[in-house]
Specification:
The chain has about 600 residues and is of the alpha/beta class. The chain has 16 helices and 17 strands. Strands 12-6-3-2-1-15-14-13 form an eight-stranded parallel sheet. Strands 8-7-11 form a three-stranded antiparallel sheet. A two-stranded antiparallel ribbon has the order 4-5.
């Protein structure tokens, strides 16, 4: 979009972005005062953000939450923005957790609900203060390795978290019943039998045995070997690996189940035999008690219940061998029951292990679904609030890319989250009776990404190449996302590729000009929000003025030459207050009577 300050006679190839497209954020401290300050700075777009979560504290700069501001203050901010023709957007607290609900090694529904509530607080605030626009929320969904995300033309990883990541990075999987995350190192070793035949898929059923000893021969393999084998066979690597890992335990448990079941059966058969013989002897006692008793004594001796002759119980046994036989019978029955229960326990373990392999899924498959559901629910809430408050523009959810170490920051992951969330919202709207085409359009209007180029620059520290190549990669990826309508909002800040220092644009090595140029080339017409944070006291306006400068947004014309705000920022700007159109409420200066000269009365 060309600036209205320029005409066809202007010369030069510098990029020209309308100043109305460039704004500034206020994310720490009182957002009302932040809005007022940025009105004085000449900003036409202001993003109000919150660092606090749960119970807020306005006495702490990072403790402000959307609920820290009541109806009157919200109304004053709304009027202040409207009268001064300021566009306002909103940023939910980045300190609330992940939309996927991931926390401390598991995906938790209660965590996901907490995140959703915090985003809804920001939506509620936005519906009172703004006329629509983005409600930004941070992404950072769950851990995953970097090496497998993308390959170079030579087949090597484009990114590495550490030099040996390909060998040592964990394989992350989730039990889809419990949400628990499991991490298995790729260099972990597993001992399995050697197959008796070449290419045998299950060496446990027919292992190679030593010809002399008859013992099974074993070999050691790494998890990465199984993963490679799974890909070659076109199988799900997660299930394949878990089958290999747990197979041995399953076989052992099932073996114990079979062994103990067999023992229980043998013992039970013996108990039944003793019972039949005892009943036969007791029946014969009625006809010939002496002979039957002698036979019982001999039978007790056979089954091992006769006490030693030196034992005090020997006399009792001779008198009543039937009692000893019956006691033995009961004892053997109890032993058989014990074996049965133990066998059942081993069987249950084997069953649960088989179930575990069936329910273990890749972390992306599970986590992406959770993230999409949360974002879709937030967008549904924004859509309802927009209609309820009769806002002029759509009020939409704007997920923001964050750290490379967490899912959602790579351009491909970022795209997947936006598309999956839109798909889920479409499904939700159709469930409420909306037609498919209309539902898709509403979802696209209410879920659009916030792309932070400063956050994207963190990828450089893991990039296996030069900064020039990295900048090319980043701008190309951004171009594809912009062309496909994934990005609807932009954050600008600078750094040196290591962390989120929020330097003013032009003060680090983020390719901001190329980034914006590419977005403009691909049709982006949204806002660019400059984010302060890395400036010294009194210079928090610099991200805005530096953005105006490097993006070629002229503000004045003097004698056929253009001047930008940054030509005067160190002299006039930031020192002499500029008068906004109007200030309302508590944000207005004192209306006490003073002399025209403003000289205080003596």
């Amino acid at each position: 979009m060309e600036s209205d300050y320029w005409n066809a006679l202007d010369k030069g190839k510098e990029m020209r972005i309308d100043p109305k497209q460039i704004g500034i954020s206020h994310g720490i401290g009182d957002v009302g005062e932040g809005l007022k300050a940025n009105v004085f700075r000449g900003a036409k777009v202001v993003e109000l953000g919150f660092m606090g979560a749960a119970k807020g504290s306005r006495s702490q700069p990072g403790g402000h939450t959307p609920e820290s501001y009541g109806i009157r203050e919200r109304q004053e901010m709304r009027e202040l923005a409207k009268i001064n023709e300021i566009e306002v957007s909103t940023h939910a607290s980045p300190n609330v957790g992940y939309a996927s609900g991931y926390q401390e090694g598991a995906f938790r529904d209660e965590t996901r609900q907490f995140v959703l509530h915090e985003v809804k607080r920001a939506i509620d605030f936005a519906s009172d203060v703004t006329q629509g626009g983005p409600v930004v929320m941070h992404l950072g969904e769950f851990p995953r390795p970097l090496y497998s995300l993308e390959k170079t033309e030579e087949g090597k990883p484009r990114f590495l978290a550490f030099p040996e990541e390909e060998k040592k990075a964990p394989l992350y999987v989730v039990d889809d019943r419990t949400g628990k995350l499991e991490a298995i190192r790729r260099d972990a070793e597993v001992t399995i039998p050697k197959p008796a035949e070449e290419g045998m898929k299950d060496p446990w059923k027919n292992p190679l045995r030593n010809s002399k000893t008859g013992l099974i021969e074993f070999e050691t393999k790494k998890i990465s070997d199984f993963e490679e084998q799974a890909y070659k066979e076109g199988k799900d690597p997660v299930k394949f690996i878990f089958d290999k890992l747990i197979h041995r335990e399953i076989e052992l448990n099932e073996g114990e189940e079979r062994r103990l079941t067999s023992m229980a059966q043998e013992i039970e058969d013996k108990s039944n035999m003793i019972q039949r013989r005892r009943l036969s002897l007791e029946k014969g006692r009625e006809k010939n008690p002496v002979t039957a008793r002698l036979d019982a004594i001999e039978f007790g001796k056979e089954i091992g219940v006769q006490p030693p002759k030196s034992s005090p119980d020997f006399e009792n046994y001779i008198k009543d061998p039937y009692k000893y036989i019956k006691d033995s019978e009961e004892e053997i029955k109890m032993q058989a029951e014990g074996y049965k229960k133990t066998a059942s326990s081993y069987g249950a373990q084997a069953y649960n292990q088989r179930q575990q392999t069936d329910h273990m899924v890749p972390v992306e498959k599970y986590g992406l679904k959770q993230t999409a559901e949360t974002i879709a629910l937030a967008a549904m809430n924004a859509y309802e609030m927009e209609k309820q408050k009769h806002l002029k523009e759509p009020l939409w959810i704007a997920p923001e890319n964050w750290r490379p170490e967490e899912y959602g920051s790579h351009p491909d992951e970022y795209r997947k989250i936006i598309e999956a969330s839109r798909s889920k919202m479409t499904e939700n709207l159709q469930g409420k009776g909306m037609g498919e085409d209309e539902a898709k359009k509403v979802a696209e209007d209410h879920i659009k990404g916030t792309f932070d180029v400063g956050h994207a620059n963190f990828w450089y520290k893991f990039y296996q190449g030069s900064k020039k190549d990295f900048d090319n990669w980043l701008t190309n990826e951004v171009g594809k996302l912009t062309k496909d309508g994934i990005i609807g909002h932009v954050h600008l800040s600078d750094n040196f590729g290591y962390h989120d220092e929020h330097l003013s644009p032009g003060e680090g090595n983020v390719p901001i000009q190329r980034f914006v140029e590419k977005m403009k080339e691909k049709g982006y017409t949204g806002k660019f929000i400059a984010e302060p944070g890395g400036q010294k006291e009194g210079r928090f306006h610099q991200p805005l003025t530096e953005s105006w400068k490097i993006l070629g947004s002229p503000m004045y014309r003097i004698d056929m030459a253009s001047q930008s705000w940054t030509d005067i920022e160190s002299s006039y700007f930031g020192r002499a207050p500029q008068a906004p159109n109007f200030i309302v409420g508590d944000y207005a200066p004192s209306k006490d009577w003073t002399l025209w000269s403003e000289v205080p009365l003596e």
